[in-house]
Amino acid sequence: MPPQTRTLLLVSVLAFSAFASRALDGRQIYVRGETATVAVKAPDSDAVAFDIDGWLPAEVPVKDGVAEYKADTALLRAGDYIVRARMLCAGEAVGTQVFPLTVAKVFDNERIPVWRWGGGGADKPWWQQRGFTGGWLASLRDPVDATDPKYVARIKQSIEEAARCDFELGFYMYPMISARWEKDETVKARLPDGSASSKVYPLEPAVVEHTRNLVESWLGRFEDYPGLRHVMLCSEWQTPYCVNDAVAELCREDTGLDINDFVTDGGAIVAPRTVQDGIIEDDNPRYRFLQWWWQRGHGTAPLNEIQHAIVKRHRPDVTTWHEPYRLAPVRYSHKGLDCIGTWTYGAPDIKRLCYTTYLQAAARPERQLVHQDITLFVYGRFVIPLNESTANLAEDFSGKDPYFTAGPDYAREAIWLVLSQRPDILCFYSAGAMAPTKTTLDPYYSSPETYDAIGETCAALVKPYGPALRQCARVEPRVALLMSAASTWFRSSDWLTGYDNEKTLPYATLLMRNHVPFDVLLDEDILEGALDRYDVLVMPKADTLLRSMYERICAFAERGGRVIANNELRATIPRAIITDFGFSAWNRINGEALAKGNAVTAEELRAIMEDYARELAPHLDGVPRPADAASQRILTNSLDGGGVRYHFFVNDDRTYGPRFGEWKLRFELGVPQTAELNIALDERPALYDALQHERIAYEEAAGRAVFTKRLPAARGKLVAALPEPIAGVAVKAPETATPGEVVELTIRVLGESGEAINGALPLRVDVADPAERLDQWGRYTTTRAGVCTFRFIPAINDAPGEWNVRVTELIAGTQAETSITVNP
Predict the structure, then answer these.
(1) Structural domain span for residue 815
(2) Which of 115, 493, 670, 811 is most solvent-facing, going by the fewest CB within 10 Å?
(3) pTM of the shown model
(4) Residue 17 pLDDT > 80, yes or no?
(5) Tell me, what's the pLDDT at 700?
(6) Which of 693, 781, 796, 797 has its CA nearest to residue 745?
């Protein structure tokens, strides 16, 4: 059914109490612009007279015992109404039914979504007050007809309310954890020795059939509900290596390999043969098998594709996504989905949140969206001494260890850092048991003020500037960092604990300290010639390379490309610069090491990494830096928005705090700092401190603007670079408007030349009726290629007269106003 035409309700004329109970089964909330269809059973009437609080009256004939009334909600103000249906027989009223109808405001589809991972649906207003725009419901494991009807009713109510308040609510499909599998050994992952795992293999036929039924039933039940905006598919499922008939057959079909040649009796992967000179052949069977396993063999990705197809058949507008991306550096582990996501821990260094850039590497081939989850979950072992930790970080399980919610300054800096990399969606995770809406929790553990900090940062940065930043792309880096599957699966050593995709993060932070923007490349990128786009290739862990990769890297070096590799490189590459950085200290900044007396403190780790960054700096001479700073404790990123460029300077200076400071394992508080900053002008000489709406005075040196700024603690500066100063805003609007018809405004931000500035510039548009009500159409928006087309519809029940439109551009803070006469 098209989203603009939805059936509201089928009601009986028998009794109001009977109607009221039936009303619970139908939609009552519509987004303005939808066509609501009201179908009323009236077998003893020849017509039914409808109206909505007196508006949109219509007399509808009864056909086959039913009268069907269509209402265009675009004609009404957003608000709550009563629909009245008067039954007529020979022109005389024989009965009346009434029921509620809500017209919700048009959704804001320009903003950057900010989601609550694993909740938010039950207390939406609380989360919205703190900057969140969405969340989701608990996992759905069985079809609708196998689910408690009371639970289904609660889901319906939550989705309805999500439409009312423009809260992006999502489903969480998780068929593999249905209780139906507990005693069904036929679907379990089977090892070569005949034993079975406790985990289901996702592509067993019974699991696939159950999954289809699950997704079909829930999407079929709620496809007409616009409050449903996204669907997460099977998060964090780690299939053990197995040899089920289904996976063995798939392996033969896809690769021609026998899976039994690669999986040991105990379910491990057979060890690699000796690697000669750090090079393996492109068709190495073990490499091919592991690449296939992480793309398709583990079963989650193909099952997610099946679910995605069902979701899109019912609701093409719903976003599908899966997380995490952290177990193997390959493409297509999320094939076909709309979005790739991962949650990332900021311990022991918040700069690990540069992982957004890693996600973009995985998303690049299919141009998928990227969803970065900032996890606020703090394991006890990250911050306090523990004689023996029971946590299993590989499975995100805290065991019997205490755990905490990160503090407010962590959240502030994390938002600045992640947003500077241009994600498509922001998300926050914290322990459900530590939900900030639980007011009885000990704040030492739950840190409720963290969520106020999120709200403050979203209000100041994400919400007003998000629409413009969404129109931007990262300034193309000239440095690439290799995250290699060959080096992961054929490594000579393992110097860092944690997930395979995260093991190059420490080296990446050295680039960040040197203000060098970078892309992440996978093996496939190298093989396809991606090095042509870069001047420098950094290889933090390159124990082993595919032969064709090696040849391409050598050719890159021969034609003048700079190769920087850490000391584990075994292949010989011409003129390669070899660094000798050790990252074992990252393994000793934890509570267990502290209890044993051999821990590294946060200060000591920072000093080690700053020394490494200084040592690396000469090897990065001449690398283009759109934004630079005199301090390693300022992080930079730059985004292009047409003729406008946005430079982020993020304050990364931190110190210990009152909660965990005595143990010195984690910085908690941001520290204000004043530093010299500089920006490559690149024909954009007009600089603005965007959040302060102020021009920046600077000195020019070698084509760069040099200036000094004070950066607030745990926050940053957003500097907008324009081709000319802003002179003002121009708004073109019609003189008059008719209720129910679209009013179109054309908005331009003008430079001192009088011409529109070509680029993405943030705007705030407010539309006030004669009673000065601003509740219907005001929102943040942006110019696109220099122009913003803003549309709104005066309702037939709006006040006629002179309406005022005020437009504020959010870089220099200039405003323009115009008036429109809305006819009666």
Answers:
(1) 726-822
(2) 493
(3) 0.96
(4) no
(5) 98
(6) 781
